[in-house]
UniProtKB/TrEMBL annotation:
This is PepSY domain-containing protein. Keywords: Signal. Residues 34-54 are annotated as: Disordered. Residues 1-29 form the signal peptide.
Length: 137
């Protein structure tokens, strides 16, 4: 009786493992149904569209570089390389980046001693790199 119960447990455990493996996509349909597999068969299962494709997400520094390379931002930054009317020595361009889910919010502004002056905010998609200015001209 004990040996019989032990074999039944082994069978149930094997069935549970096969079910879990096939549900997780580790076995193809033939393997899950118990069909023998060829020794020469490719061990890698074909892509079924269910596997997750790991995409490389943009880093904060990459988002900053993308925004910094835009023409209007280059023109804004160039103002600080040459003397301009009303500029103070403490006036500096600043670019801040903060994460909001799958978006990088990039704030381009001028820092002054007593306040800041926003040039623009940009939304950068972490997956695609698409840049959207938040303040439309």
């Amino acid at each position: 009786m004990i040996a019989r119960r032990s074999n039944r447990c082994k069978v149930l455990l094997a069935a549970a493992i096969i079910f879990a493996a096939s549900s997780a996509g580790l076995l193809n349909a033939d393997q899950a149904n118990g069909a023998p597999t060829s020794k020469n068969a490719d061990k890698k299962a074909p892509h079924t569209g269910k596997q997750k494709v790991k995409r490389k997400m943009l880093t904060a520094n990459q988002a900053l570089k993308l925004v910094e390379s835009r023409k209007e931002v280059q023109d804004f930054l160039a103002q600080f390389r040459r003397p301009r009317q009303g500029a103070t020595a403490e006036s500096k361009p600043v670019i801040d980046v903060e994460r909001d889910g799958n978006i990088w919010n990039v704030h381009v502004y001028e820092s002054l001693p007593d306040h800041t002056a926003t040039f623009n905010w940009y939304s950068v998609d972490r997956l695609t790199g698409k840049i959207t200015p938040m303040i439309k001209e």
